[in-house]
Amino acid sequence: MADFIDFTDLSGLACQYIDGEWLPGGGSWDIVDFNPYSGDKIASITVATVGEVDRAYRAAERAQREWAAVGPYQRRLVLERALRAVEDHESEITELIVAEIGGTRQRAAFEIGLARDMIREAAQIALRVEGRILPSPKEGKENRLYRIPVGVVGVISPFNFPFYLALKSVAPALALGNAVVLKPHENTPIAGGTLIARIFEDSGLPAGLLNVLVTDIAEIHDAFIEHPVPRVITFTGSDTVGRHVASVAAGHFKRTVLELGGNSALIVMADADLDYAVDATVFSRFADQGQVCMAANRVLVDRAVEAEFTELFVARVAALRVGDPADEDTQIGPLIDQTQADAITAQIDQAVADGAQVLLRGTADGTLVSPTILTGLSPDSPVLRMELFGPVVLIVPFDGEDEAVTIANDTPFGLSGAVHTADVERGVRIAQRIETGMIHVNDTTINDEPIIAFGGEKQSGMGRLNGESAVEVFTTTKWISIQHGRTRFPF
User: Fold this and answer.
1) Alpha-carbon torsion, ordered 461, 217, 95, 118, to 10 deg
2) Nearest 5°: CA angle at 273, between 269 and 274?
3) How far is CA 353 from the centre of its chain?
4) Can you tell me the distance from the alpha carbon of 327 to that of 479, in angstroms, rounded to the nearest whole number?
5) Cα–Cα distance measured from residue 331 to residue 263, given in angstroms and rounded to the nearest whole number
6) 437-478: per-residue pLDDT in tens?
7) Topology (CATH) of 10-260+460-478
8) Which of 2, 7, 230, 433 has its CA 20 to 30 A from that of 195?
9) What is the C-alpha separation between 63 and 209, in angstroms, rounded?
10) What is the distance between the alpha carbons of residues 262 and 404, in angstroms, rounded to a whole number?
11) Are residues 299 and 279 in contact, defined by beta-carbon separation less than 8 angstroms?
């Protein structure tokens, strides 16, 4: 594995990976992978075509039949080798995350840690599939309920946390006896796609079980979802695209798991530890430049402590270091591309035009956008109800617990959240009233643990991943009955 990643020549990973072969795409144009901070070209990959989508899925279909028959202990060995590969090559993976995603070194360490935990859990989950024997009202009847792999899984991964969020589906799906075709985001084709193929190839995964297609909807349209082979599609991304994925998949009777956007609220009660709440809020909003679905877009603060909290928070945010993600001291690096930077800047400008008060106004220099803090928003301000995928945060005062809950729920999203209070049980009571899939008392809004069901409510998605939820998603049940003796039929 000496050439695991060669930064002098990434052409070895700038390919399609189909049926165990590294191949050029068959399309007529290239996806160019840029460093979002420097603008330097990292790699150029010719897109995969509809024909290659078919080839990848057919390879997966063939390979999966044998893989499903392999014992779970043998599948676990492959996952354990993949874990060692990530551990052995953490420095190289870090450099790739810094270069391709613009992630800071702190953020890269965070993502790689999550990835290690997920692979470790997947290695264990291979052994946790259980069947059942159920009673029957019929004399001599034995009912067996088997849990078997779904077959082939299509995975569409995002540009934010691409390495981890792809592995979140890929690792457990493989561990449970399935094959996978992975389509990474065009902004992160290596960290979110071909790097993962290299890891599993070097870990002894048989050819065809993991295929990676670097392509774009402009080339393949809905072929990745519509293809008859995959039975499950997992998608992480925007609610707009997620709605389309769900609609197309449903039309072809496919199961979907959608991890979509968020508009999380972090609630600071009057009795909260304000210094700690400030620290949690800074991380909740500005981790990965705010490009996190669980990020705290809205910080709801009891009016009794609003002035004190705001003073502390503005000072902490103003001191954050923005710049080159390769610098060890940088805390906020670039957004993924200029389109994203322009979009968040436009949202800030619109909020200010609508009357928001500026507590800290960031600047935009290409893809580098420094933090902005807004308050004084009108209750009907559109920006309060949308996902903000960048370094901007909204401070909203409230009077009392009921108003905090009302404001927190006034959004079409429901992914994560947090409540800070000295009274833990009061925090739990408030958390139970918030319409989200996940919420955390006295912690950050950004939490993901490999054995805990992860997912949102409302427009933040459908279904859950992680732990036993992954077993539900990537396996299906099959009833086999046995009649001991003769059944008496009515005619």
Assistant:
1) 30
2) 80
3) 33
4) 57
5) 22
6) 999 999 999 999 999 999 999 999 999 999 999 999 999 999
7) Aldehyde Dehydrogenase; Chain A, domain 1 (3.40.605)
8) 230
9) 6
10) 18
11) no
